[in-house]
Amino acid sequence: MTSLLELRALTKIVPGGRVLFRDLSLSVAPGELVAIVGESGSGKSTLLNMAAGLEPYDAGEIRIGGEDLALLDETGLTDLRRRQIGFVFQAFHILPYLTLRRNVALPLALAAGDKRDIDARADAMLELVGLGNRGADYARDLSGGELQRIAIARALIHKPALILADEPTGNLDSETAARILQLFAASARNSGSAGLLVTHSAAAAAIADRTLELTTTGLTPVNVK
Q1: What whole-number distance in Å separates Cα of residue 131 and Cα of residue 2?
Q2: I need a surface site. Which of 48, 64, 87, 188 has the fewest CB within 10 A?
Q3: pLDDT, tens digit, 9 for 90 and up, residues 116-147
Q4: DSSP strand E in 111-209: where?
């Protein structure tokens, strides 16, 4: 099967000369969900940022849908992210003085479209993450767990080809986390999205098709079932 995300012989060296990883390679196919685990400081979040074109790498190649990120300028990278990537950041990056509906709808609003349709899709996503009656509320009033659910809804609303998620259930209770994890899995498998998930959670890793441990020597398969 053709890969949607391809990482080829990636090397990342951080200030001070420490090698996070060297010659790392990974392919993620459409409809596949891959979990990355590893010790704190191993470079898991850095790897996600690199895959999104948000952080440089020292050697290797990254392709999304066949496009080589190294050949794109900043405008091209921004357009690629808007069209193809849904990113759940560990720090959320929710805009506090927008309503929940407007925060979730941002990827659609940037692409333009009918406002009523955009609002309806945002409300549907809010329902899926358990905040269906909160669309008119403001993000500044939310708890950490609620902010995380908004970040997840925003990442999935435009049905991206690639979903990148950095600890997407870290601030959620076990019941909500289980629902969110199923939403991730369904989005990847039913929509044909490729998913790359960084997590410390065994429950999160268990829903993935593959789980890989990140070390300085690359990625090693792990059995968490």
Answers
A1: 36
A2: 87
A3: 899 999 999 999 888 999 999 998 888 888 88
A4: 162-166, 194-198
**Could you report the per-residue pLDDT of 86-97, keeping only the tens digit for each?**
998 877 789 999
Quick count: other Cβ atoms within 10 Å of Cβ 79?
12
Q: Which residues pair with 6 in a beta bridge?
A: 27, 63
Architecture of domain 5-95+160-221: 3-Layer(aba) Sandwich (3.40)
- Tokens 């333009």 correspond to 112
Distance of alpha carbon 44 from alpha carbon 93, whole angstroms: 19
Distance CA 96, CA 117 (A): 23
User: Which residue carries 């909160």 as its tokens?
Assistant: 134
Tokens 């076990």 correspond to what residue?
174
Q: What is the 3-state secondary structure (H, E, C) of 65-117?
A: CCEEHHHCCHHHHHHHHHHHEEEECCCCCCCCCCEHHHHHHHHHHHCCCCHHH
Other Cβ atoms closer than 10 A to 96: 11
Nearest alpha-carbon partner for 152 in 124, 191, 183, 111? 183
